[in-house]
Amino acid sequence: MFFHIMLVSVEWLNNNLKDVKVVEIGYNPQINYYEGHIPGAVLINWRDFLDDNSRDFASPGKLSKVLGNAGINNDDLIVLYSEMNNRYAFYVYWILKAYGHSNLAILNGGIYKWLKEGYPIESDGIVVNKKSEYKARKPDWSSRILVWELLSKLKEFVLIDSRSKEEYDGLTTAPPEHKCEQTQMSGHIPGAKNIPWTILLNEDETMKSRDELERIFSWLSKEDKIVVYCRTGARASVAWYALKEVLGFKLVRLYDGSWVEYGNMVGVPVEKSVSDRF
């Protein structure tokens, strides 16, 4: 019934709340979720999808526990939303797809659009569901690329830098919302084209239409081997979604190490040219 629904409207969600598992992916969960969330939405911190002892993603065992504690089953349709222009919803979508949960959707426009349209919210504490027995698969990382492969085949890829113009140009090493998390180097990976992730979204934080996305990415070929990156992977996941899920590009991968890794590595090539800016 719900299989392969990937981007749902606030109207659709409001009419189907009882049939789906709504998950708010929290970046500042102690602030935003408790101020107001979509009725029935469970809260999962985005860091719960990461490994506890290394900069990597959670093991299938940990992920199974996280989703099971949230009352999610393997066949549930999960509808994701987050703060910060929905970026962490897209990021977790990319992660969960790798772990084999194909029945996924993103709330188009997120909590901003939900509130803008006047739909109800809850603010009376955290939602607790009955625990389930979720079983995550071993992840398929075919849509991921690590820095070692990237550097060894740099000229084979079409690189898309999803950060802001200021970050791409080398004027800053972190966006304003993460101003304390600077890297040693500024700039961008050589050859990367700057397509800031925000141009993929409308003013109400919904994703632009297929026609508009096709225009933005009209310079790409379906045969291109595409790598998207940003600072930590969250903003780039919006570009990955637009390219992979909306436009149907098959050879698109996300470099989740992104600039927080690349900008701190010794001896890697860096550019600060503005000539490739979109």
TrEMBL record:
The keyword Signal does not apply. Residues 16-123, 153-271 form the Rhodanese domain. PROSITE patterns: RHODANESE_1 (PS00380), RHODANESE_2 (PS00683), RHODANESE_3 (PS50206). Keywords: Repeat, Transferase. It comes from the Archaea. One of its GO terms (molecular function) is thiosulfate-cyanide sulfurtransferase activity. This is Sulfurtransferase. It comes from Saccharolobus solfataricus (strain ATCC 35092 / DSM 1617 / JCM 11322 / P2).
